[in-house]
Amino acid sequence: MSALRPRTIAITVLALAGLALPLVWSHPFVLHVAIQALIWALFAASWDVLSGYTGQVSFGHGGFFAIGAYTAACLTKLVGASSWIGMVAALLLCALVGLGVGFPALRLRGHYLALVTLGFGEIVTLVVTNWQSLTGGAFGMHDYGTFSGLPTDPLAQKQAAYLVVAAVSLTGLAILLYVTRRTNAGPAFRAIREDQILAASLGIDTTHYKLLAFSLSAGFAGLAGALYAYYIQLVSPTVGSSASSALVIGMAVFGGVGTIWGPFLGAILLFSITEGLRFIGVVYNLIAVGAVMVVFVIFVPRGLAGIRLYRRGRQQRGDKLKADQEAADAAS
Amino acid sequence: MFEEILEFLILGLVLGGIYAMFAVGLTLIFGVLDIVNVAHGEFLAIGGYALYIAMVVLGLPAAIGLVVAPIAVFVLGLAVYPLLIAPLQKRLGRRAPGPLFLVLTLGLSALLQNSLLAIAGGEFLSVPPAVKGGLDLSFTYISGQRLLILAVAGASLGLLFLFLRFHRQGMAIRAVAQNPAAAQSVGIPLGRIFTLTIALACGLAGLAGALIAPLFSVYPAVGFTLTIKAFAITILGGMGNLLGALVASLIIATLESLSVIVIPSEWQNAIAFGTMILVLLVRPQGLFGKKP
């Protein structure tokens, strides 16, 4: 472990510097991109828990995101609830919906599960478009305010919103990483991904853990949706469209499916890059996402996270070579 | 009331023809390559754009446009296997692909759809109908374009079934669908059959896109909703089952057009998705599939 320590410190310092950058360089556009990138990062990490880590691929995660966003917006607009209550409610409701979707999806695998979740996402979009009395139809909901208790000065408000989003998003990532790396659920999720039948034969309650993965993943996707609703202050049916489901999959593939922190970082990077492309033209960022998906699936299937693993493998081979050399020297 | 139902039945039949041309191709690709082509709708959109270029930009007659459009999409479809799918298959080797092909075609879909948006813009481009006039039944009027759709859909699907049944290449496609390893061992080149299958299915989608262009206009996302509907249809018909897809197309289209009598038309799209989820839960192998 001690060999890892300098690298761990370096990563921590880099991460903190990256997080502090938007506060130091407080250009409104930089803050705007950074906040949205963190929201997408939490969304991508939540997708990865179910689809990458547990292997139950969801093509309709935008549906959970939309439900979270609309829950938060409705609670604040109709009841006047504070944003903290809205976020918790979005998390809990989406976890419940995830359980509801997960239950019938238990018997489905592979293509079929992907298609049924795609259908789920489309149904959510249809409902929020047509339930006009509650959701405002195609124009969406607005005028419900941002996070509670932010300063009114525009720049200070953006900075405070950044702090709130960063705190919530990183806490979400920490919880997801904790559950998958430090509890019994992690190995169970991986076992289900590798071989469901073998996992069951080893005494792993696959039903229980699959439902856990579904509700965990859906809950945090909903939390990301609530963050989006409070920051953008406008939710419309497009937030849950299949385009946003596709975008989150593209981000996860870019970062490295199945590592959870990979999609988190991948989303931040890809979102920042594609927002940068907006200066060239709005449509190019989605072309870039499509191209990234195609190229990465074929040539870099483990994403950016996988590149690190490759380097470590090479280093280990180098170390082994050196040890062999020394052993040979000692022998002669 | 009876005449109203008959009118919607006829509309459903026309819609069913379009769905069938689209879904049969989708299920053919699934049956032969075991891949769900999420980008299928984009080939339909490209077919529509090809017709637009031929008829409106170049001013060619409609008949030529209707021939050129599917051929253009067919040629584009020829590139899909060697450029995208073969490299991934080669890299995977014998490992289970999991969702990788779905992600690949989803990426292709985003790429093509937004490229269309970048090149052609988001406007709804209208195309003049290929045939003027129509058929005046006593209770309703069917436009010539709809009759043309029925005729062309019937003819092209009939030709496809004949091709698969009797032509050497068609029989090779069926052999690969049944057992790729055995087909390869009797000398069928898998790569060529895969390329041909995808191109055929894409060409059919392109023809469907050219046929509906005068009815629905042409815009980049014209195919995507149809893709999701076609998933529902292929699942209802049993994935990989061509005749099942044909029958399921007619069922879904008829249900959709008859539903307008009972429920508001905004909810029309929910029928396909609802059917899909219901079928997956009750009878995942589809109407005509065998129990796995």
Question: How is this structure best described in words?
Answer:
The complex is a heterodimer of chains A (332) and B (292). By secondary structure, chain A is mainly α. Chain A has a single domain, classed as Orthogonal Bundle (ABC transporter involved in vitamin B12 uptake, BtuC). Helices cover 79% and strands 1% of the residues of chain A. Chain A has helices at residues 5-24, 28-53, 61-79, 83-105, 110-130, 132-135, 154-182, 185-194, 196-201, 206-232, 242-255, 261-277, 284-299, 303-331; strands at residues 141-142, 234-235. A two-stranded antiparallel sheet of chain A has the order 1-2. By secondary structure, chain B is an all-alpha fold. Chain B has one domain (2-119, 141-282): ABC transporter involved in vitamin B12 uptake, BtuC. Chain B contains eleven helices and two strands, in the order H-H-H-H-E-E-H-H-H-H-H-H-H. Chain B has helices at residues 2-33, 40-57, 62-92, 100-120, 144-166, 168-178, 180-185, 190-216, 224-237, 242-262, 268-282, and strands at 134-136, 141-143. The radius of gyration of chain B is 19 Å and the shape is globular. The interface between A and B is large, with 43 and 42 residues.
